[in-house]
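Review box. Two proteins, two foldings.
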Amino acid sequence: MNMLNLPKKVYFKSGSMNVALRELSEVYNLKRAFLVSDPGLYRSGTVTAIDNWLLDRGIRTAEYFSIGSPPSFADIRGALPKLLEFEPDVIVGVGGGTAMSAAKAMWLLYEQPELDLAEAVEAPERIRTGAKAKLVLVATSFGSGAQNSPFAVLRDDGGGIRVIKSFQLLPEISVTDARFTESLSSAQVRACGLATLSRSVRAFAADGCGDYTQGLLREAAGLVLEHLRAAEAGRPDALEKLHNAAALAGAAYGNVLETVDTETPPFPTAAEKAAAGGRVEELARALGFQDAGNLLAAWEALR
């Protein structure tokens, strides 16, 4: 039986973060929030603003920012003593794919301290979450769509990339608020947009991509193709379109792919270009292009 697995609540409007986080106290009656982010966002003041917002509503907070890119097993284990001492009833990941992967893995380990992270990679059916805390993910950049996906991308003790996939890692609330994207540089916007486009096309062409996920991926790819240049120029409406595109892609590819490869070059590689056709042709025509070649030409123009 096919299913479309999504976070319980998805907020996706500019300015929606305040409404979403208000639920933590007013709907869920939560008291202790554990904030997870990366050092750059902490220094920028983004996390401090969220921290103060929660404190003003009577929610105590603790923070953890000692994570690499990608976060390592050691980073995740290092947070466990603080998690167990603070006993949060909600974990809030703030940032891009790095911070959200870290928040998912910390949630996993907080819920099941006895579960080894390497074991979670190999046996994701053992993962159980939600007994101690809820997870909230606030995306401040786009590219991974990790706020809506079941993947946590980590670095293991040997330095290799390991990906945990479990729908138990989907958050209670995901937030795609485009206000956070306005400080991104043109280069960051371009890189994120091309990453979203790559993930969207590859997932659309993958086996198991059905009617529901095709629609999400088609919309995501179309939004990037139409709005990337304006977003690079800093137009807020275009930035919001790309932020939404990443969220749509994340919601879709998590239901199509068994893993994600963070080291594959942007689409299309030489092999993908030579093999373009089939589902890529179908996507091209759905987006209004004459054929896959015209879609690839439009793509190359953006690069």
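Next protein.
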Amino acid sequence: MKLEEKTLSSKTLYDGKIVRLEIDDVELPNGGSAVREVIKHPAGVAVAALTSDNELLFVRQFRYPFREVVLEIPAGKIDDKSTPPLENAKRELLEETGAVGFNYVPLGAFYVSPGFTDEVDFLYMCRVDHFEEQRLDEDEFVNVERIPLDKAVEMALNNMIPDGKTQTAILKTALLLKNV
């Protein structure tokens, strides 16, 4: 069975700083029709940065949609599509934690929530070389924490870290280091 859907029309309902909301009329594989709500996003990056003591760098920050403080690895959106994801990841790590990394290893990309958004996040692992000053955006407030990798794995497995990109990066990092 053919599974693809054909876009018949598309309308932008909102175009903001981070996302754009589009409503599409589509033709289904069986010839029927449906409406698809799609959030367009420029893509994101995230970094599992390990210190020489095998501690991962995390940031705690208030996440408005959930109205709670969330523990995450350093991450952010790709501001300029002409800049490779790795360069954006390096920028985010420095901005949020002040860390400068080396030996970056791609951990892959994943679809954040393919049912309603086209956001793709690119994950990386690196070692921390040294620290400089944080370069937070004016509307960004974070606390930096260091957590041993083994403890971070335990936290991810016990649902103490609800963020999907962070869970994925922690577990991939641990598996890669175990197999080295």
